[in-house]
Amino acid sequence: MSIRQIAISLCFPLFCAPAAAQTVQPEDTIAKCVRNWMGNWQRPDMHTSTPRVDSVRVDAAARTILVQGSGGFEEQFFTEESVERAYRELKAALPKEQQNYKLTIRAYDKEISELIPNAVRSGKKDQSRLWDRHYKGDPWVKNASRAFEAKSGLENTHIALWQSHGRYWDTKENQWKWQRPRLFCTCEDLFSQTFVVPFIIPMLENAGAIVWTPRERDWQPNMALVDNDNPQAGGTYSEGHVSDASQPWTTAPQAGFALGSEPYNAMTMPFQQGTARCVQATAHATQVSYAQWMPDIPEAGRYAVYVSYQTLPNSVSDARYVVHHKGGTTAFRVNQQMGGGTWVYLGTFDFDAGQNQSGRVVLTNQSDHAGTVSADAVRFGSGMGNIQRSLSRLSGATSDLPRFAEAARYSAQWAGFADSTFDAYEGANDYNADIQVRGRATNELAGGSIYMPNLPGRKVPLELAVAFHTDAGVSSIDNLIGSLAIATTRTNDGLTDAGISRYANYDLASLLISDLSRDLAKYGWSVRKVWNRNYGETRIPQVPAAIFEMLSHQNFADMKLGHDPHFKFDLSRSAYKTIVKYVAQMHQRSYVIQPLPVKDFAISIDERHSTASLSWSGVDDPLEPTARPTGYVLYQRTADGGFDNGTPIDKDHCTVQLERDKIYSFRVCATNDGGQSFPSETLCAYISSNSQGKALIVNAFTRLSAPATLENDSLQGFLLDDDPGVPYGAFAGFCGRQLGFSRSRIGSEASDGLGASGDELEGKVVMGNTFDYPYLHGQGIALSKRFSFCSASVSAFLSMPADERNSYRMLDLIGGVQTDFPAQLSSALENYCQQGGNLLVSGANTLKSNALSVPSLHATMAETVSNPYTNQVHGCGLEFSICRGLNSTSYAVPQPMSLTPSGGAFDMLAYSTNLSAATAYSGSDCKAITLGFPLESIREPEQRNQLMNAIVNFLCP
After folding, report:
1. Which residues, listed in sequence order, are joined to residue 328 by a DSSP beta bridge?
2. Three-state SS across 269-336?
3. Would the pTM of this model clear 0.90, i.e. be above it?
4. What CATH topology corresponds to 801-957?
5. pLDDT tens digits for 555-574?
6. Could you give the angle at which helices 27-39 and 80-93 cross, rounded to 10 degrees?
């Protein structure tokens, strides 16, 4: 309907023409009936604004009634059930004489049945908002070493997404600042990425997708960059060949990357400052030429690997890269016919510090196609922001934060996008430039592809874009605010560049909300609205796009869940599932959802045959029938290396041959045609050449949690110093400790407003639960060379027959900072001791509030050590420190225990205050040691291993 038609309809006089044998109701009576009905309309599963009637048009001669709804009515997600209900209830609310009129109800600019997303329609689909094309070429990036294929997931699907805002330069205030305020220990600029980076992106990639984000995705603040233009800087770049018949490398005809002199000003274009290299491709292994990038890694750890190249007229679609890392080698195929002149993400791997053969990237010119292979720079890690800003575009200051904390506007400049893409306001407004760059960069990448054929660009077949935000308001009565989704349909004549209806955007937004209402029902979660409004992030992309306001970072009730890693996983999984279903619907194909992680993981060892038997259980998803696992992938690590590329397993158990005197670590992912699950915890096994028996390490530290809270009639907030919670792995979402707790200041963004927080943690990566602690414990046991060992999850341990549990000479229970333990664990441990076992229990909470009750430990908790400066421990000829606060290497231990020995037990270790840090008991019945802190929290690895060695020698002399 045109604007003129809409205006006429709003002004058109209501009338009722006379009809034979029928009483004509006055027009205002019919309108009143409609408004009364609309005023009572509500969705019990949604929280929308007040429904409104914009217009009622009655044509008595034609016997029709047209109702235009707005407000909360049009903000709902429509289903076949809600549409049927609306027509049924409104007809019943009309005067009897008009109940047989033809009724039409509209919302936005559609009859409401047209607003039902295609994916949930049982009948005919709206073909105008489905793809009439399907990308069938080689993917931008393919992991050729991957042990699974997601043929009914998102294989070869290219997706753009981003984690809201980031640190930006405010030209009015002449300073770097966040785009959203610091609230409840975080800000949206940091908080949204704690969903996107550790959960949503991996879920999509586990489904086979190629994910691109305009903000930095790597939380590694260090960086090593190797480039052909300065081949000895940041490491070593070199070229070579295998024979005289190999083709030579030459300078590419297009400009390439050069690091140049940092920091960059607002006009520096790093991908225009240098050169790139190229070589003719060959199918013959005897004629291979290669380029190699060996970085000087500043600190051992996990680093994302990015490559760059130039897309040339005859580039090949299968350039072959091999990443050498601590876990071995991983091969990639990169389609250099697209996406040249920017950073292209391959994967994230473990690297040792310095330069070595196990830390490098090699590109060869071997290909299945004739053409050219290009080589430019390779980057390892995120690094610090290097764009300086000021009132002058030629000078200024950098953000002084890691690149992952910065806005997309600066990442896009660093990544080689056009200045018209990243600096649309020519330095005058970085805030608006950042909002626009996300969609503009999507278009620049996807232009010229099958999904954006009419725009110039780099031909990456991105087919949808999703912006993840957490900006949704506050509730003064502690209600959940919940989730909101936004689409834009009224732009570019309502079409994407490829000519499909922008109501494909509306479908995506509606599905994000409708799926969430089911997936988060166990939390009592609130879903709010689906808006069809003009937002840059949904207007600018020329592919289907939606904004997903996941929750409200301003609202305490939302944040109690939002800081919880379990909730993050479930919300992220819902978003991932929606994208899978949406893409499948857009291409009219079936789909499968990837499985949930396995449970009951356990390892047993056969010392005679040097084998380890591994077993686990697959988990069905009650919300997703297709998510049933059909296979598994076993990942293996030797000693302190990295994990390999995985081995497919078709059963829920397997046997692995071990080399004696080496620690092997394993983790398992479930698989099906939708992809692979998140990994299990990591367990390990070791067979000693001089074994005097076997030990079992039991991982009872499964906790993931939000920070401690303070909540009463006048105060509300999070207490990081009392307990910062336990994130899932690495976490980069805190800005600082909460400072404002007064509920009377709710909604204020002033320094004393409710939730106002500090800045001391901004840009810092802190560690949570890595689920990899059996290995750290096993290192100390292996040091004695007297015992073999294996490990088990706590659930698998409790399912073992008692005689199997009691067969181990030593049992090591990892308690970490677990606050609750299975009810039957205490009795299982006590039974083990009563059978003459030797038990080690370590953890900060094991004896608190009778979390565990094991009389044979002969220890009770005396008090908690709340002073954060008490981190030194001494005894057994050792002196070491434990990780009390948030840090980058270990989860925090805010309140370790001091202990009181009894029944012949004695103090073994002491804190610097001389409170007992550990007790030991040696009796005729059993031997036991209790540590009031987690063993793995010891900062010094050598001291930790020496302590475990002393424990082994005491328990098993």
Report:
1. 325
2. CHHHCEEEEEEECECCHHHCEEEEEEECECCCEEEEEEECCCCCCCECCCEEEEEEECCEEEEEEECC
3. yes
4. Rossmann fold (3.40.50)
5. 999 999 999 999 999 999 99
6. 140
635-684 pLDDT, tens per residue? Answer: 999 999 999 999 999 999 999 999 999 999 999 999 999 999 999 999 99
Give the Cα separation of 926 and 556 in Å (integer).
49
Query: What does the longest C-alpha to C-alpha distance in the chain come to?
Result: 106
Asked whether the beta carbons of 763 and 405 are under 8 A apart, the reply is yes
- What is the Cα 773 distance to its own chain's centre? 22
Query: Residue 133: is it exposed, middle or buried by C-beta count within 10 angstroms (0-12/13-18/19+)?
Result: middle
Residue 302, φ and ψ in degrees, nearest 5:
-95, 130
User: In 3D, which of 202, 198, 220, 224 has the Cα closest to residue 211?
Assistant: 202
Taking only Cα atoms into account, the Rg of the chain, rounded to an integer number of angstroms, comes to: 31
Q: Which of 956, 704, 700 is nearest to 852 (CA)?
A: 700
- Do strands 647-649 and 653-657 pair parallel, antiparallel, or not at all (unpaired)? unpaired
Pick the CATH number of 162-216+405-586 from 3.40.630.40, 3.30.70.20, 3.40.50.2020, 2.40.260.10: 3.40.630.40
Rounded to an integer, what distance in angstroms lies between the CA atom of residue 715 and that of residue 740?
9
C-alpha span between 882 and 873 (Å, rounded): 8
- Look up residue 147 and give its two tokens: 């042990």
Beta strands in 117-167 (DSSP E): 141-143, 158-162
pLDDT digit string, tens, across residues 41-100: 888 888 889 999 999 999 999 999 999 999 999 999 999 999 999 999 999 999 999 999
SS3 labels along 652-712: CEEEEECCCCCCEEEEEEEEECCEECCCCCCEEEECCCCCCCEEEEEECCCCCECCEEEEC
Q: How many CB atoms lie within 10 A of CB 906?
A: 12
Query: 224-381 sits in which CATH class?
Result: mainly beta
- Regarding the domain delimited by 3-116, which CATH topology (the fold level of the hierarchy) does it fall under? GMP Synthetase; Chain A, domain 3 (3.30.300)
- Distance in angstroms (rounded) separating the CA atoms of residues 240 and 249: 9
State yes or no: pLDDT of 860 exceeds 80: yes
Contacts of residue 73, defined as CB under 8 A and 6 or more positions apart, other chains included, come to 38, 41, 48, 51, 52, 107
Quote the tokens at residue 190.
């940091």
- The answer to whether the beta carbons of residues 279 and 289 sit under 8 Å apart is yes
| Rounded alpha-carbon distances, angstroms, from residue 779 to 473, 686, 692, 783, 788 | 49, 10, 17, 6, 11
Bridge partners for 861 per DSSP: 899
User: Are residues 264 and 387 in contact, defined by beta-carbon separation less than 8 angstroms?
Assistant: yes
CB neighbours of residue 203 within 10 Å:
26
> Could you tell me how far CA 674 lies from the centroid of its own chain?
18
Give domain limits for the chain: 3-116, 162-216+405-586, 224-381, 801-957
Instruction: Enter the DSSP assignment of 598.
Output: P
Residues 6+ apart with CB under 8 A from 203: 572, 573, 576, 594, 678
